[in-house]
Design goal:
Distance between the termini: 40 Å
Shape: globular
Strand order of the largest sheet: 5-6-7-8-9
Radius of gyration: 17 Å
Strand content: 35-45%
Largest sheet: 5 strands, antiparallel
Oligomer: single chain
Helix content: under 10%
Number of strands: 13
Length: 213
């Protein structure tokens, strides 16, 4: 009945695929007529619950979904769809307010992915490709808003906003970092910073290729 953060890309077979979040879950739909009509929704990522040691229990919301399909010429995983989202740990107490709404002392904010090698019919298990940190106190600080792109040589990149190195020092700033895969999303590099400003929040990353570069 509702959704947010929609993203739409054209698949290799000509259809449109849309992803969006609703009630802390991630869904997809397909269109074979350029968006005039859409298929029923299919759930790719669902919210879940975690409990770690004595820190308590958290409800992990799946937010900020984004995806890309690798080209048919990709040398590693041609046609693979890489679906990324942002895990947000939330307090189990629905009446909590302020920073107490979050549960970053139980589970870290995380960039997670699933992959599909059959045009979105079935999906792999979820993998955590980058984790922020568990903080001594709950707060709305971690990593956010993944963006997936394939480079001309077949390398896959995921960009995301990251507050982790700043919040360690009590600052609210964030950078844009990137992780890379040279095997179609099976393994990922450690992050490197691509945009950093010591006195601003760099915000949601969006990347495009210009003339193949």
């Amino acid at each position: 009945s509702g959704g947010g953060y929609p993203r739409v890309h054209r698949l290799n077979d000509g259809r449109l695929m849309m992803c969006y979040s609703s009630s802390a879950n991630n869904y997809i739909k397909f269109s074979g007529d350029n968006g005039l009509t859409w298929s029923d929704e299919s759930q790719v990522v669902m919210r879940h619950f975690v409990e770690e040691n004595a820190a308590g229990k958290a409800k992990v919301a799946a937010s900020n979904p984004e995806f890309a399909q690798l080209s048919a010429e990709n040398p590693y995983k041609p046609g693979r769809i890489i679906f990324a989202c942002n895990y947000r740990p939330m307090n189990m107490d629905s009446q909590a307010t302020g920073d107490d709404k979050y549960a970053s002392s139980v589970f870290p904010y995380t960039i997670a992915i699933k992959t599909s090698d059959d045009n979105g019919k079935t999906w792999s298990a979820m993998r955590h490709v980058y984790k922020s940190e568990k903080w001594p106190e709950n707060t709305l600080r971690g990593c956010w808003e993944p963006f997936v792109i394939e480079l001309p040589d077949g390398t896959v990149q995921i960009y995301f906003a990251d507050e982790t190195p700043y919040w360690k020092k009590g600052s609210k700033w964030q950078n844009i970092s990137v992780i890379e895969s040279g095997d179609g999303g099976s393994s990922w590099s450690t992050p490197r910073i691509v945009s950093q400003n010591g006195s601003h929040r760099d915000g949601m990353p969006v990347v495009m290729l210009l003339d193949g570069m």
